[in-house]
UniProtKB/TrEMBL annotation:
Name of protein: MOB3C kinase
PANTHER family hit by this protein: MPS ONE BINDER KINASE ACTIVATOR-LIKE MOB (PTHR22599)
GO molecular function annotation: kinase activity
One Pfam family, short name: Mob1_phocein
Superkingdom of origin: Eukaryota
Binding site for Zn(2+): C83, C88, H165, H170
Source species of the chain: Indicator maculatus
Keyword Metal-binding: yes
Lineage: Eukaryota, Metazoa, Chordata, Craniata, Vertebrata
Gene of this entry: Mob3c
UniProt entry keywords in alphabetical sequence: Kinase, Metal-binding, Transferase, Zinc
InterPro entries: MOB_kinase_act_fam, MOB_kinase_act_sf
């Protein structure tokens, strides 16, 4: 019943935009399949995130960044009707944490935005990066740029803020939609991945520090 219910929730497919896909036949597609298979096998998530022997760490990180982007985009898409200019005029995680938006284009200084506006800017920004061949090269033999892991840290740090906002401000909606188990699993997977490769400054994790396992387990 749970699976069916989740399927209904996530089949609305209210993602903001077309999802980035891996091209079949590429090494990264094979890695993606490997990662998905071990995820479905019910292995401990701490084991699932470990780099498979002989694989390149940057490929492994690239596959996960894209996959987390797709999945968190979907989770937020299903929440978005509850996250409005009125309900969430500030992009925050409780009373102590406020996230301001900054990029190299329109927002050169950290700027207060509503949560939905922040999310929109964030998803557009990540999509632009993962579709940029100079940063996420897809052609065989084209190396990753030197700053690749730094870029991924920035992406993952900002994606983590989506979890912070959703858990702290919209957890009732998650429960009402029957999506709690799905969101918790995705959060745990994400958390173990960033810890395994030290991809986020631990200070960023503080808003959810009491729930490394996800709420309620």
């Amino acid at each position: 019943a749970m699976a069916l219910c989740l399927k209904q929730v996530f089949n609305k497919d209210k993602t903001f935009r077309p999802r980035k896909k891996f091209e079949p036949g590429t090494q990264r597609f094979e890695l993606y399949k490997k990662a998905q298979a071990s995820l479905k096998s019910g292995l401990d998530l701490k084991a699932v995130v470990q780099l498979p022997p002989g694989e390149s760490i940057n490929d492994w990180i690239a596959v996960h960044v894209v996959d987390f982007f797709n999945r968190i985009n979907l989770i937020y898409g299903t929440m978005s009707e509850y996250c409005t200019e009125k309900s969430c005029p500030i992009m925050s995680g409780g009373l102590k944490y406020e996230y301001r938006w900054q990029d190299d284009n329109k927002y050169k200084k950290p700027t207060k935005l509503s949560a939905p506006k922040y999310m929109c800017m964030l998803m557009d920004w990540i999509e632009m990066l993962i579709n940029n061949e100079d940063i996420f090269p897809t052609r065989i033999g084209v190396p990753f740029p030197k700053q690749f892991q730094q870029v991924c840290t920035k992406i993952l740090t900002r994606l983590f803020r989506v979890f912070v906002h959703v858990y702290i401000h919209h957890f009732d909606s998650i429960i009402n939609m029957g999506a709690e188990a799905h969101v918790n699993t995705c959060y745990k997977h994400f958390y173990y991945f960033i810890r395994e490769f030290s991809l986020i400054d631990h200070r960023e994790l503080e808003p959810l520090v009491r729930m490394p396992q996800g709420q309620g387990g």
